[in-house]
Design a protein that fits this description.
Distance between the termini: 16 Å
Low-confidence stretches: 1-8
Oligomer: single chain
Shape: globular
CATH superfamily: Winged helix-like DNA-binding domain superfamily/Winged helix DNA-binding domain
Length: 117
């Protein structure tokens, strides 16, 4: 379980309750990444796993991304090719994304370590 180091923890806890812990962490990271890149981000599952979610297995990362796509929160556009990257777009009109407008900047683990996102 993760606790947020921001004053908006009630909203963020609602997101956790809606989609589950790992999916919520992935959503918040993708959401913040797309804010910095004009609404979309291009990465492979392997890049997400290695650079952002090393604490999750690659199959778990894939499963949670699929869940977020199935819920209509994320859109995935694959172009094939050798690098196997996909472009991820956040549905900013989805109710969960509206709740994230005051985006968090870090997650604090129960062990006290701060993980910036």
């Amino acid at each position: 379980m993760f606790l947020y180091g921001t004053p908006n923890s009630i909203v963020e806890n609602e997101v956790f309750c809606e989609v589950g812990q790992s999916s919520a962490v992935i959503l918040i990271v993708v959401y913040n990444e797309t804010l910095d890149t004009n609404g979309f981000v291009t990465r492979s599952y392997e890049e997400w796993h290695e650079n952002y979610f090393p604490f999750l297995g690659i199959a778990t990362v894939r499963r949670h991304f699929k869940k977020l796509v199935d819920l209509g929160i994320l859109s995935k556009h694959s172009y094939g090719g050798v690098d196997r990257t996909s472009t991820w777009i956040v549905n900013y009109d989805h109710p969960l994304c509206v709740k994230l407008k005051n985006d968090p900047k870090e997650i604090i683990g129960l062990d006290g370590r701060v993980m910036p996102i």
